[in-house]
Amino acid sequence: MELRYLGFDQTQNTRSYRFEKPVNGEPALTFVITADLTLFLEHRIHLQEGPALCAVKLASDLETRQLGEHQLTNADLVAHVTARMTAEANRTELRTRRAQLAAASRRLT
């Protein structure tokens, strides 16, 4: 699904991210998804990640035909942090295995 990020507006601790979805031969549809910035701080997520996180959430909402308001929730951010931590743990495990294999290879030669 193609979504174009248009920017954001901010009111106190809430950012409203604007996206548009091109439609063949028709004017693009505009969508807004809100995010509570205190949740970004709470979960130690950089604000620069906001547009990408919102795009993923919005695409999911639109694919499941969720109508109405769109919001990046605490659960969405927890899922993001969990996925990030899992990916980092996998990378660390892979580096450890490679180091162990290299050490074993050196012992054999």
How does this structure look, described?
With 109 residues, the protein is an alpha+beta fold. It has one domain. It is 50% helix and 29% strand. It contains 3 helices and 4 strands; from the N terminus they run E-E-E-H-H-E-H. It has a 4-stranded mixed beta sheet with strand order 1-2-3-4. A hairpin with a 2-residue loop joins strand 2 and strand 3. The protein starts with a strand and ends with a helix.
- Into which percentage range does the β-strand content fall? 25-35%
Oligomer: single chain
C-alpha Rg, in Å? 20 Å
SSE topology string: EEEHHEH
Tags for this entry?
alpha+beta, 4-stranded mixed beta sheet, 4 strands
Q: SSE layout and pairings?
A:
Layout: E1 4-11, E2 14-23, E3 26-36, H1 37-42, H2 50-63, E4 70-72, H3 74-108
Parallel strand pairs: 3-4
Antiparallel strand pairs: 1-2, 2-3
Give a quick summary of the entry:
This protein has 109 residues and is α+β, with helices and mostly antiparallel strands.
